[in-house]
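step: validate -> pass
step: tokenize input -> pass
step: predict -> running
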Amino acid sequence: MSTTTEQTEVVAAPDPVKKFKGYTIDELRYRMAMATLQKEFTKEQFMAELQTMINESPLNSNNSSGILGKMLRGLSFIDYALMGYSAFKSVRGIMGFFNKKRCKR
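step: predict -> pass
step: emit ->
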């Protein structure tokens, strides 16, 4: 029985992950251009959504139907602020009533 053994030289595999040595000027310019484009697209999308929200606002709508819609259409910001204050004052009074009752026990 004859056996022959071949010895193979073990060679270290090259490192598959190259060391990062930085970007070239062209790559940096490309990245800056892409970032600027993305920012512009995001700004345009935001402005379009904002315009849609403004147009669909029930306070600015001229086609409000019903008594509440007609009433709200004629009010100014001062009127809304006064209504909010009045509602807050009423809720505060009711909450104060229940808190007094709870503290007496």
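step: describe -> The chain has a mean pLDDT of 78.
step: cleanup -> pass
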